[in-house]
Amino acid sequence: MEALYAITTGVLTACGVYMTLRGRTFPVVVGLTLLTYAVNLFLFSMGGLTTHGAALIGQNEAYADPLPQALVLTAIVIGFAMTAFSVILAMRSRGDLGNDSVDGSRTDRDPDQDSRRESKA
Amino acid sequence: MTLLWIPLLTFLGVFVPALTIRGGRSLCALATSLAPLAALLLVIHAWLSRGDAEVLRASLEWLPTFGVDLALRIDGLSLLFLLLILGIGLLIILYSRYYLSAQDSMRRFYAFLMLFMTAMVGIVMADNLLILWGFWELTSLSSFLLIGFWSHQTEARKGARMAMTITGAGGLALLAGILLIGKVVGSFDLGTVLAGRQQLLASPLYPLIVVLVLLGAFAKSAQFPFHFWLPHAMAAPTPVSAYLHSATMVKAGIFLMARLHPALADTPLWNTLVTLTGLTTMVYAAWFAFLKTDLKAILAFSTISHLGLITTLLGLGSRLALAAALLHVINHALFKAPLFMSAGIIDHESGTRDVRKLGGVIRLMPVTATLACLATASMAGIPLLNGFISKEMFFTEALEVQPFGGLSWIVPLLAGLGGLLSVAYSLRFAYATFFRRPRQQPPQTPHEPPWPMRAPVELLVALCLVFGLFPAVLQSTILDNALRAVSNGPLPTYHLALWHGLNAPLLLSVAAVLGGIVLHFFHRHVMRFKRKFTAHDARYIFEGAIQRIVYLSQRGIDRLENGSLQRYLMLLVLCSLLAIAPGLAQLERLGGSLAGQPLDPLLVLGAALLIMGGVLTAALHRQRLVSLLMLSVVGLVVSLTFARFSAPDLALTQLSVEVVTMILLMLALFFLPQKTPRESSGGRIVRDILIAAAFGALIASLNYAVLTRELDSISSYFLANALPEGGGHNVVNVILVDFRGFDTLGEITVLAIAGLAIYKLLNRLRLFMPATDLEGRVWAADRHPVLLMVVAQTLLPLALLVSFFIFLRGHNYPGGGFIAGLITAVALILLYMSRGVEWAQQRLTFQFQPIAIAGVALSTLTGLGSMLFGYPFLTSTFGHFHLPLIGDIELASALVFDGGIYLAVVGATLMILANLGKLTTEYRPNKDTP
């Protein structure tokens, strides 16, 4: 089960990273959200995977580690704040710059190719 | 503690000019001179009342952990330099009063001058190498201000920048050297360092230390090849040149070499480096002094040459050479300062410093010219003047000491050549300015300056004569004491006198004088010869070098930083990859000792859904809506995962956040392009997939490694104390609102700030709103479906009730302020969605910003409340209360804190979502209608 959990976290991380490397704002925001899920799952598992052990005193015999849970709870809310901020920033940049490229002004050109061209020149 | 007053007095002097300038320029000059005068008297008093002590010390503890104390000392060497710095400083203040024109800000000038004086006093009094270095850098800084005093002149600005760059760079080398010394000796305390000679010499770092320290000293004292900044620093007002370039700033390097002489010198490395640099500088600069036509340029190169002479003496290493070096420090200051001042007077009165335009000045300004001629004679080393005494000692030592074995004859040869050239340029200086018939009329007809302007020159030239005739006065009072501080072991027996009999040094001297006179006759031929060379202006070379460096670094920056965020992120991911990978590689094997838990079908299904959802989100990312739907699948399954692994609070939070996030992203997507254009090249996609896969694999390995190992957590403390200390059964909630309440407070603050920032970002934002969806279908005409309206409205009171219930039970069962806040927010958003903004706006007339702020404030106040009862911030309390009808209930003060969280979450979430929703309507955020 541990292996399956780890693989799932890994796949979500990979998908999130791939999305954040895109050149348009919306996929990047979605990628960030995906990455947030992966990170939360990862952090949560730092306390081990416990079944039937909610950290409610007196209700269970063995308790899951409550500390990562508390940390992840705040991480979820902060993650929401971050997602909201970045997506609104994306909207604002589209409104002000007229496009939704992450690099601002460049719309139709691939910035990395540009730099390659410059360094050759 | 009187010692501390000496730099403090000069530092206080920085503020005096600004306070007294209203009283007139004379009062300002007088008041400013009080500080150095008092400091000078203090120095003399402290020295005379020292008793048997050789060194006076005072120190204030400053940074004991770094071994840096504010430690000051006065020994013979400090005394010598202090007298020069403060004494000549006083004269310069007097001289500047008449030199500065009405347009020059005297206030600023004196303030800079006093700052510089403080820095110099600090250098020579420092009893700790790091303190010394601090003042050393301060001299670079304040001399920058002084040299660039006429900042409207390009020359001044460039000269100041050059001096700052060179001496500052030398300062960095010196710092490196000092740190290494501290490492070897174990302390920065000067006494310890000077006593640590054996350790330093034995250390393999010794050559590096010597080179670094000498780099600092050479840059400061304008030794070849760092000499070129000094002639360009002549763009400064003449009093500055007279002060910085005769007595103080350039002598700082000499002082440093003398100061560290007992610890570092007298090794083959030191002797070779210092002697050769000194000799080269002396001859090279003397030659250029002979070729220059600007009075100040001649003096500048002559200064470099004389500094080279002192450096040579410090390198020769014999005790007598040291004595000669120290004596020449005094002598050079005494004749060079009046020469600079006279040059300033001539420039001031005649309007030019070009010797080709001057001539016959002796008839127009007989007194000044006579004084200047005496000082020039001292510079040339003519008998009866002080310059002669130290030059004779120099020649003696040059003939005596054999530093280079069989090749040692080079020392007296170059010394004699330097002497010859110095006679030649002195003659040129005096003859062309004072005696020659003028070839052209200078811009103004010069006349004698006011007496107070000439008085400093008179005093200094008088001293030149006195010390030239009776040099023994200096020996007992100053020189022997200084020598004791600089050399190890007993004092050499020497006798300062005018006449030592007919000996080799005297013959060398005579030859030099005669040679100099002959060379002067051929000046015109030399100048003709010089024209065959292309002139190199050090300024252009320097500026060119600086521009090249700037260009190169700009290219480096452009390469790394091309403005593409995509690329930065890629580099960031790559760097974290490189940071994590070695750590994992050090593990013996990935899996740990823990036995795995069994799988069940439900888990496999969940994992499959997650993986599928994640991959599809990424794969279909160009169809944004589909990608978003896939993302929501991931979010939901994540929340189920939390539920499965005993984290009910997390599951609830994740679920409600998921709802809010999806509404937010859908709304945002409405205003953004629905499709992502195909723009990444194939290679790019492959590259990104590889990076992402590598990163994912690394995270998976890391996760697996952690999951299969025993964990040692601090959580047992929280589990044990949640009930007795926090009064709650739900440990997660108790951690949030009690144990780690401060974190939570910070977090809701961040949430509220994000909400406010978003509100600001949405201000007056106008975006293109598509009339149809991607396939060209018009949006449904039924904007507010009846069914949704009914459900939403029915749901609202229920949702509020549920959120209240969840809020209250949070301390003991899954729930709490976060979840309750999110549920309330979702219910209100649903109302907005079903009824439209207009309808909701008419009924929800309040603003959300104050709610969020009130929430943060409430939580903070709860925390502060505990301080009223004498407990630390955010201490909570709880108790049992009996309420009629309801019965026994347990209430904790943390509940109020949780209430703050609730309000902050509701306020911030609605601030974000409702304002975003309002974008389409007339209620859109606008600065004018808050």
From TrEMBL, chain A:
NCBIfam families to which the protein is assigned, alphabetical: PRK09094.1
Membrane-traversing stretches: 28-50, 70-91
Mode of membrane association: Multi-pass membrane protein
Position of the signal peptide: none
Name recorded for this polypeptide: Na+/H+ antiporter subunit C
Family: Belongs to the CPA3 antiporters (TC 2.A.63) subunit C family.
InterPro entries, per database record: CPA3_antiporter_subunitC (IPR050601), NUOK/Mnh_C1-like (IPR039428)
Entry annotated with the keyword Transmembrane helix: yes
Organism this protein belongs to: Kushneria aurantia
Cellular localisation: Cell membrane
TrEMBL record, chain B:
Pfam families reported in the protein's UniProt record: MbhD, MbhE, MnhB, Proton_antipo_M, Proton_antipo_N
Keywords tagged on the record: Antiport, Cell membrane, Ion transport, Membrane, Transmembrane, Transmembrane helix, Transport
Residue stretches making up the NADH-Ubiquinone oxidoreductase (complex I) chain 5 N-terminal domain: 65-110
Its membrane topology: Multi-pass membrane protein
Span of the signal peptide: none
Superkingdom of source: Bacteria
Domain MrpA C-terminal/MbhE: 684-766
Domain NADH:quinone oxidoreductase/Mrp antiporter transmembrane: 126-404
The Na+/H+ antiporter MnhB subunit-related protein domain, residue ranges: 788-910
Domain MrpA C-terminal/MbhD: 609-674
InterPro entries: CPA3_Na-H_Antiporter_A (IPR050616), MnhB (IPR007182), MrpA_C/MbhD (IPR025383), MrpA_C/MbhE (IPR046806), ND/Mrp_TM (IPR001750), Proton_antipo_N (IPR001516)
Chain ranges passing through the membrane: 30-48, 78-96, 108-125, 131-150, 162-181, 201-219, 240-258, 270-290, 297-316, 322-346, 367-389, 409-431, 459-478, 498-522, 568-587, 599-618, 625-645, 651-673, 685-707, 744-762, 786-807, 813-832, 852-874, 894-917
Compartment(s) of residence: Cell membrane; Membrane
Main location: membrane
Protein name listed in UniProt: Monovalent cation/H+ antiporter subunit A
